Protein: DNA mismatch repair protein MutL
Organism: Caldisalinibacter kiritimatiensis
Amino acid sequence: MRSRIQILDNNTINKIAAGEVVERPASVVKELVENSIDAQATSISIEIVNGGKKYIRVTDNGTGIINDDIKLAFLRHSTSKIKKVEDLERITSLGFRGEALASIASVAQVQLLSKTKDSLSGRQVDVHGGEIISNKEVGCPKGTTVIVKNLFYNTPVRKKFLKSDNAESSHISETIYRLALGNPNIAFKYIKDNKLILKTPGNGDIYSTIYSLYGKEFADSLIKINYNGDDIKIDGYIAKPSYTRGNRNFQYFYVNGRFIKSRLLSKTLENEYKSLIPINKYPVCILYIDTNAKNIDANVHPTKIEIRFKNESILKYILSKSIKVALEEKNLIPSVTIN
Ligand code: ADP
Ligand code: MG
């Protein structure tokens, strides 16, 4: 009998992978900006039109891509960030799976322009639906620009699942807030339908970054958290109990620079606020946890929004202690002295 099992062609494989990595325009923004961050950019600008469905552009002043490497960047599992399986144990970059550009380019019309500091000219590559349609020398500044047009133009069913421009824009905004808060050393600029939406100073200061994004009233409600252990460091802010939210969307946790969602961390935070805020209200935080890469596993989720901690109980103990101390210092909870 003739064999019925076939190995899928690359374009089909990329479209399947795109189903995991590229859920909506905001996922494209996330992947492109993360690439810019990994390329040591100090300035990143994002422009979108029509909720990112029509047009997304991310420009950075990072390292750029070596001319000959540009077409490799669009291949699946092609990455400059890891080389072998042991590297997965010590990931310091946001990307490492080598999937994003290949996935995005398989479901959109992508143009990438890039130049390294040592190269005299840059390169422009156009990839439509996974096919390279042009690859030429151009003049451009050092860094990389990626333009993604007409997302899901060749996968009509997925396109149909996209929401209104407003709904998609708000996903993008949330994505950019997460990235901008997580990288106070990078100057972010976000333009939506020709209107400037946000700008961060990029001066490395967490407080002024928060201030630039949320304004004075919120910045005034912040309490500093700082723990400096050998193995774990925690930095950032919690908000006073008078400043709460109806959901967990204003709990920003970063581990080694990566925004994550973590039940463990949220519960630990909430536990310290339990007696201070009403039921159904959630405390607010922007916390940065730094630890040796070997203490976490980031390779558990395609979008890497969840990670695994090797030693949960120590982290939980340190976080709750740091929050307790900070709240006590502001006299928000009574400290008990035993004579
Ligand atoms: P990953 O980020 O997982 O390595 P991607 O598909 O997102 O995979 O990108 C593939 C490769 O293209 C990266 O490893 C990097 O070498 C290069 N690249 C992509 N975007 C940029 C950028 N903005 N600046 C410099 N290099 C980039
Ligand atoms: Mg990437």
